[in-house]
Amino acid sequence: MLKKIFITLAIVVGIVLVGGGGFIWYLYHSVQSTANKIYDPAGGSGKNSSAIKNLQAFPILLLGVDERKGDVGRSDTMIALTLNPTKKSMQMISVPRDTKAEIVGHGTVNKINSAYAYGGPKMALNTFNNLFNVNFKHYLRINMEGLADLVDAVGGVTVHNDIDWRDEGYYKKGYHYQKGDITLDSGAKALGYVRMRHLDPRGDFGRNQRQRDVIMAVINKAASFGSFSKYQDILNAVQKNVKTNLTFDDMKNLASNYRDSKQNVQNYEVKGSDDWEKTSSGSKIYYLQISDDEKERVHQMIQDQLTDE
Q: GO biological process annotations for this chain's record (predicted)?
């Protein structure tokens, strides 16, 4: 779900950097303070990122976590984002949360979203890298509740909804999401929109699409503000809900030199087959089984995006 939250912060940084004057200086330091507070090297130190300094293609693993008090939560959204400033392209590969994988460092085979619950961003990175034979070193994690805060910060967003439904179950708030262009005028309504899965015939794939749509709507609205006062609300939302091993200098360089990467956006959802496995208790558990060919396809897609040819 939350693949482009990082870009939101980068946009804020970029706008600040091209400004001037005393108030801009104050806001610059607000962004710097936020970046320092969300910095967390738990997944490995992100300092001195040579790829960013040398304007090379840059990969980062985005993790959307449904984290509650006393519960680390699982990474129900996992997206491999690779920015290539030379190609002016951005690649986003979504890994379904039920993907069967070896949980590196835990000694088990489980759903890939459990890696974060067992060992935080470091185990999530190692598990992803092992599954697709790649080497991602940076991560950005956002709590699911953070999306609601961001939607509230920008004053709501408008998206196009493909199906008509009313919310139900644990998150039921009485919202009716009509087919067509709809306004999500509160964070709570947006959260219900992106969390729904069982009423969508596309399941997880449909939910991922709604998540992408809401995040892009947040970014576009944030970038259109004429008043800097709104950005403080966005920074507060980011500070409460985001952790990353990207440093402030990394973010400045990305905002300044990688902004054209958004010109060509490539989306891909990892494919697999349904697999029901019987547990020791006799019950069944669902996995998405990824073939070796699909693993190689994803590996090659990432490698191609990392090269400038």
A: cell wall organization
Can you tell me the mean pLDDT for 146-156?
A: 87
Mean pLDDT to the nearest integer, 150-169: 88
- For 5-151+226-306, CATH number out of 3.40.630.190, 3.30.565.10, 3.90.550.10, 3.40.50.410 equals 3.40.630.190
Cα separation, 20 vs 191, whole angstroms: 36
Q: Where are the alpha helices (DSSP H) in 133-272?
A: 144-154, 187-195, 204-223, 229-241, 248-257
Q: Could you tell me the two tokens for 79?
A: 């997206």
Angle between helices 22-38 and 248-257 (to 10 degrees): 120
pLDDT at position 169, please? 62
Q: How many CB atoms lie within 10 A of CB 135?
A: 10
d(C-alpha 214, C-alpha 198), whole Å: 19
Structural contact between residues 241 and 153, judged by C-beta atoms closer than 8 angstroms: no
Contact 299, 136 (CB under 8 A): no
219 Cβ contact list (under 8 Å, min separation 6) = 4, 7, 8, 11
Q: Is 260 left (phi over 0), alpha (psi -120 to 50) or beta?
A: alpha
Q: Where are the domains of the chain?
A: 5-151+226-306
The verdict on pTM exceeding 0.85 is: no
Identify the three-state secondary structure at position 77.
Answer: strand
**Phi/psi at 99 (nearest 5 deg)?**
-60, 130
